């Protein structure tokens, strides 16, 4: 057993599997000097104090009434889009991209501008309790490198992608095919040379309409030329006009999902945002490739994209995580993603989901708060191929954790006599905000 260097004493809540919430009222969480969890003990089951805190040299941290939970994992966010958060919410996807997204992302051609604005964005995610974030940057190589440096400097765990766009894009935000591929390779080398497990590169074709077949093929080959393959992230089946456009562009493919697949971009280290309108054959394909789906309900409502049937994906054995999709979604808060996932799921349960057309297979149980919390932690971890590293407090994982203070000054949460731990936790999920997230740890290092 590695030697604990710090032991946290307090209430622990984490999710072991979907709907399986573990609550330990008085836990001792021991962390070694490299930030790895050595053990989690339920101290009420320990015969003596020595059983859980008596390790020479270890610092004992008393959390009192605070609650320790795993850090949130945002499976899909656009770091440059923080600059127009909460604007353009009256437009659907394709108009929103043209009017807001592309002009704002073009400004990131300047690495100095990019660094300043990426710092603001990463801080926001961290302060909202996002210990791991999978970021889209922009097409610009140097600015995307700056995002990597900032993620590392601020101590977050980040998966970062240089975006690829070589067609159907405005002249101020488009690349040559060869340059795009070469810059992606250079970017991957830049990140891997850091040799720091906290930041990893992700191959990031924007979506099928923005990327030509030769570039998609090159990216697919680049991914599997590494062992293990470089992760792949993109958007899939978000909006009905987008889907019609893709099918028109790719008559050789029966479905949107099969376009990614035929270019070698769907595998077990790929994860796709949205997937609202995927048909049965597309879902079967995602399942057979072990590709994850990142559900971004705020964005799906805000851009009037549709309402994903999450329960059906879960029943079909597809990995599902949660994302904010800043700024298709108007907040970097994963608490909001949890809330909106629950609301979206209730909408489906009362017959309002997008599958009113694609066929609902009968009974639909709306997601519970415990399930939505699971998706925001372990669910996203599994989609991002980080399930062995983060997502809950099992021994050997990294200590990526939030210390919650439900009594924090000025926070929106009230605490009443007789509230149980589980009631307080639910109130945090539905009523709390970043003020209740008092401390944030990534691999044992405090970053808030
Ligand atoms: N939500 C969302 N969907 C996209 N599809 C292509 N680009 C984007 C983007 O930036 N945001």
From TrEMBL:
GO terms for molecular function: guanine deaminase activity; zinc ion binding. Pfam families: Amidohydro_1. Binds 1 zinc ion per subunit. One of its GO terms (cellular component) is cytosol. It catalyses: guanine + H2O + H(+) = xanthine + NH4(+). It comes from the Eukaryota. Pathway: Purine metabolism; guanine degradation; xanthine from guanine: step 1/1. One of its GO terms (biological process) is guanine catabolic process. This is Guanine deaminase. It comes from Chytriomyces confervae. The lineage of its organism: Eukaryota, Fungi, Fungi incertae sedis, Chytridiomycota, Chytridiomycota incertae sedis.
């Amino acid at each position: 057993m590695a030697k604990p260097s710090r032991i946290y004493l307090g209430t622990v809540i984490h999710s072991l599997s979907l709907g399986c919430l573990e609550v330990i009222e008085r836990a001792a969480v021991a962390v070694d000097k490299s930030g790895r969890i050595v053990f989690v003990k339920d101290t009420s089951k320990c015969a003596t104090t020595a059983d859980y805190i008596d390790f020479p040299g270890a610092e004992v941290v008393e959390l009192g009434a605070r609650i320790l939970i795993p850090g949130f994992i945002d499976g899909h966010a656009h770091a440059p889009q923080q600059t127009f958060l909460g604007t353009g919410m009256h437009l659907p996807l394709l108009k929103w991209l043209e009017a807001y997204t592309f002009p704002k992302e073009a400004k990131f051609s300047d690495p100095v501008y990019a660094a300043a604005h990426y710092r603001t964005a990463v801080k926001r995610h961290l302060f909202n309790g996002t210990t791991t974030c999978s970021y889209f940057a922009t097409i610009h190589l140097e600015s995307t490198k700056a995002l990597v440096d900032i993620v590392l400097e601020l101590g977050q765990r980040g998966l970062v992608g240089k975006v690829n766009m070589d067609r159907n894009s405005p002249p101020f935000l488009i690349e040559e095919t060869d340059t795009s591929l070469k810059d992606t390779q250079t970017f991957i080398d830049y990140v891997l040379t850091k040799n720091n497990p906290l930041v990893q590169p992700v191959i990031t074709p924007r979506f099928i309409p923005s990327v030509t077949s030769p570039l998609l093929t090159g990216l697919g080959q680049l991914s599997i030329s590494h062992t293990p393959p470089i992760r792949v992230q993109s958007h899939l089946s978000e909006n009905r006009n987008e889907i019609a456009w893709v099918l028109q562009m790719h008559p050789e493919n029966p479905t949107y999902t099969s376009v990614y697949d035929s270019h070698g971009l769907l595998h077990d280290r790929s994860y796709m945002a949205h997937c609202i309108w995927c048909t049965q054959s597309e879902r079967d394909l995602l399942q057979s490739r072990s590709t994850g789906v990142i559900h971004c309900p705020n964005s799906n409502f805000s851009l009037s994209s549709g309402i994903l049937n999450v329960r059906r994906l879960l029943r079909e054995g597809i990995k599902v995580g949660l994302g904010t999709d800043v700024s298709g979604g108007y907040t970097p808060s994963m608490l909001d993603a949890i809330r909106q996932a629950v609301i979206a799921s209730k909408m489906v349960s009362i017959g309002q989901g997008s599958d009113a057309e694609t066929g609902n297979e009968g009974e639909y149980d709306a997601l519970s708060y415990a399930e939505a919390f699971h998706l925001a932690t372990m669910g996203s971890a599994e989609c991002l191929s980080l399930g062995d590293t983060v997502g809950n407090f099992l021994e050997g994982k990294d200590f990526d954790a939030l210390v919650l203070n439900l009594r924090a000054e000025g926070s929106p949460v009230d605490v009443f006599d007789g509230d149980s731990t589980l009631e307080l936790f639910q109130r945090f999920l539905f009523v709390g905000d970043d003020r209740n997230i008092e401390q944030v740890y990534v691999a044992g290092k405090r970053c808030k």
